[in-house]
Amino acid sequence: MSIPSVRYADLVFQPDLRAATRDDGAKLSLTRQERALILQLTERPHQLITRQQLLEGLGDLAGELSERNIDYLVNRLRKRLGDNARTPRFIATQYGEGYIWVADPIAVAPVSAFLLIGPVYGLGENEQAAAVVKRLGGHIGQALHGSRKVLCLPQWRFEPETASHIAHSLEISLWPEDGQLHMALVLKDGRSNTPIRPFRLTVPLAGENAELAAFAQSLADAIWAHAALPGGEPPNPTDRPLLLRLHDAAVLVTGDIESWRHNAQRLRAAHADNPDDPALAVLLALNRYTELIQGPLSPDTPPLTDVQWRGIEDDIEQLALGALAKARSEPMLLLGIAKVLCFIDRGYLKLAATLTEEAFEASTAFAAAFTMKALTLACQGEIDRAVDLYDRAIELAETGSQFHIYLLILKGSALLAADRRGEVAQMVAELSALDPASRGWVGLIFLSPKSKRTPPALAMIPKEAGRRMLTYLHRTTARQFERRHHQKNVLHGLAIHLARVHGADVIPSPLREYFPKRFADAS
C-alpha cells in the first residue's frame, strides 16, 4: 500500500512521495534518488541510518555511487527541502555515521471534493497538457452549476482510508502527439474507486479547447445518470423510492432542490432515444408528478391552469400504463407506477395497491415498499396500519435525509386525515427540527382549525393565491383519500384560516359544494 499524504513542517508530501507542496503553493518534484532517500529516512524516524544503509536502499538507482556520494545527495535533498544542517527541521547529521530524520508527521486533513481530477498519468512536464487539464476542471465546475467543489490534483492516488470525503474522481491518461492531446478518462466512485463510465477525448494542445465544455456536460450527465437511473443491482432494504432517488440526483449535480426542472430535459432526451425502456418512462412519469408538486410552490413558475394540470396528469397516466407490462419484473418500477397512479386519482387506487403488494412480495426494498403500502392503506382509510408502516419505513431511512423528511410529511398527512391533531403537532415539531427551512410551508399545510392565531404569512396572502393554495392541497393530498371526512380534515385548517382573512368566498366553488357543512360558517 502506498504512503498516504503527510505533512512535515511546511511541506505536504503527495501519497507516492514523488512531489510535495509548500504552504506558499510552490511545488517540489523529487528525483527517484531523492524519493528513495526520503522513503528510507521517514520509515525509521529519529533513528540513525548509516550511509551504507542509505546506499544499499538506493538499489539499482545507486549505479556507481559510493558512500561518499551519499553526503552529496543528502545535502542536495536538504537544500531542496529548505533545510539547514546546523538547525535541521528534516534531516540531522550524525557525523561519521549517517543521518536521522527528525521531522514529526502532522496529520493532513483528508482531501474533500465532489469531483477530484486525478490521478493524471502521462502529464510529465508538459505545460500545455497541464493547462488543458486545468481548463477541464473549470468547465466541469460550470457544468455542475458552480455548486460543487472540483479539485485538480494530478499526483493524487486512491487510498481507501482517506477517500471517504471524495464523491467522484476522474482518472485521466494523456498522450500528446502532433499537436493533439489524446485523453482516456474514467469517471469513478470516489469512495470505492469503482469505475462508472469511461470516456475518450482528443483536443488540440493549444487554444481554448471548445470540446472540453461539451465533455464537461457529458460528465455531469453521467454523474446524474449514475445517481438517478436504476443500475440493475438488487435493492437494499433501506433504499429510497425512485422518486427520491431522482430528486437527489438532480440536487447532487445542481445543488438546487427544485429538482424537476433539471431532471426534465435529461429524462425527455433519454426517453426519446429509448421509448421502449420502462425505467425511463416511469422516471419521466415521476418527474412530471414532481413538476406538479414543486412547480406551484416556485415563485418563478406561472400558475398552472386546470387544462395544463390535466394535461400533465394525462401524460403521467400514459407513461405509467404504457410501461406497466415491461415493468412487471422490476419491483422498484412497480412501486413508481403505483405512486403516480395513486396520485392522479383516476380510479387506480386498487391497481396501485395490487402493484405495491406484488413489488413487496418480490423485492428486498422494504423501506420503499413500506412507504407505498402505507400510502395505499391510508388512502383506503386504514390510517392505523398506514402509520405503523410509515414508522417502519422511518426506522430504515437515514435520519435527516430527504427520504426521512418525505416519510414524515406522508405520515403527517395520514394523521391529519384522521384528525389526530396532537400527533400532527408532534410530527411538525420533529420535521421542523430536521429541516428548519420547511417550517413555514409545513406549518400552513398542517394548521389546526381550532387555532385562534392565523400565521402572519397566511394573512398576507392575496385571495387568489389563497384559492390556489386550497386547490393545490386538494389535488396533491386531500383527494387521494377515499373517505370524504378524511378529505375534509386535510383541508379544514387551511380553509378556516384563509376564510378568516378573506371571507368564505376564498374557498373555490367545487370545494365549497363538496364540503358544505365545513365551510358554511368559515367566516
Polypeptide structure, described:
This protein is of the alpha+beta class and 523 residues long. Among the domains are: 6-101, Winged helix-like DNA-binding domain superfamily/Winged helix DNA-binding domain (Arc Repressor Mutant, subunit A), CATH 1.10.10.10; 113-220, Rossmann fold (3-Layer(aba) Sandwich), CATH 3.40.50.11830; 229-364, Serine Threonine Protein Phosphatase 5, Tetratricopeptide repeat (Alpha Horseshoe), CATH 1.25.40. Helices cover 53% and strands 13% of the residues. The chain contains 21 helices and twelve strands. It has helices at 32-43, 51-58, 67-81, 127-143, 211-228, 242-254, 259-273, 278-294, 306-327, 331-344, 349-362, 366-379, 383-396, 402-417, 421-434, 439-445, 456-459, 463-476, 484-502, 509-514, 516-519; strands at residues 6-8, 11-13, 19-22, 27-29, 49-50, 91-94, 98-101, 113-121, 150-152, 166-177, 180-189, 195-204. Helix 5 (211-228) packs antiparallel against helix 6 and helix 13 (383-396) packs antiparallel against helix 14. It is elongated. It starts with 5 loop residues before the first strand and ends with a helix. The relative contact order is 0.05. The model has no long low-confidence stretch (mean pLDDT 89). InterPro entries: OmpR/PhoB-type_DNA-bd (IPR001867), Sig_transdc_resp-reg_C-effctor (IPR016032), TPR-like_helical_dom_sf (IPR011990), TPR_rpt (IPR019734), WH-like_DNA-bd_sf (IPR036388).
